[in-house]
Amino acid sequence: MQNKLLGVIKEDIRNITKSKLTDLLKKENIKAYQISQIYDWLWVKGVSDFSEMSNISKELREWLNSKFIINSTILKEVYTSIDTTIKVAFQLHDKRLVEGVLIPSGERVTACISSQTGCGLNCAFCATAKITDFRNLTAGEIFDQFVLLNKLSVERYGYKLTNIVMMGMGEPLLNLENLKRAIVEFTSPKGINFSPRRITVSTVGISKFIKELADAGLNVDLAISLHSAIEQKRKTIIPYSKSDSLNRLSEAIKYFYEKTHNRPTIEYLLLKNFNDSITDAEELAKFCRSFPCKVNLIEYNSTDDSRFSKTTHETLKDFKDFLHSKNMVVNLRTSRGTDINAACGQLVNKNLSKKAN
Ligand code: SAH
Description:
Helix content is 34%, strand content 19%. The protein contains eleven helices and 13 strands. The structure holds S-adenosyl-L-homocysteine (SAH).
């Protein structure tokens, strides 16, 4: 991202890779310890202005300011649910809005963060699909969501974040380079030192990039939004799956497991009378035979779309019991924060876009 100020084009310093920035600063005779201090302000403390870098000389701060910009993110709105879930709207430097969610559970606080400012996948059941004018988030913007949510979590719940799920707006694997850079910063032992095993990347199932994520050696967890193990059915709700078969997906998941030894999660959104029959459960069980995995059943959260509704308790129980009878590991993800539209699939910046202009 570049910013034009009085004819000078300044680059966002966080869009420059660590090795390139180091070379650049070294050329200016900036000492190694100062470079690491600058890096710490950018990628650990997450400052929004060079003037906040208090242990850096004024002269150097001014030089940085003359060359670069920090495109920072602010918390624009905070909504608290009756179940204590919090949804926030972040405002990016270009005034675009993106949503994030804090989900507390005992001493555990999960941050659900976004990878894009909308989504191009157009999944039939998801409200984010409605935002078609969108862009990828930079690594800095993915990182900022963490910093802001971590601060909010301490303020509101008294605990730091314990888990990160890339289940907010967008498809993380279609923004893989920036995602990888952000994860490297989250998990850097010299920096935030967040355990990669507490980071889950959720994807619609892009086979090629699942393999790339495995090859990146980041050691994060993977979740796949399967929602149907019947090819024809899946294609009707997930347009992306028309170009990436279930066979290829299965191969990619297997590859991920073999490479990382991290057991992936298969996410299955239960839609009434659509994918909740015992035949659907049988197909799901067959699909899951190719690799070790756990299944997360997800309750449907309503969007403004009347095509889908929530599976009944009885059907859900039968579906779950069937999977248990096949010795599968099954969890039920209950909806949190539905009263503030914070639940999965509900992130769409409702009523907010006008305010940001
Ligand atoms: N693009 C990624 C991550 C964003 S969606 C992915 O597809 O996984 C995060 C999760 O919410 C996905 O499992 C998605 O399928 C699910 N989801 C979308 N709409 C939903 C809805 N209306 N109710 C419940 N879950 C939904």
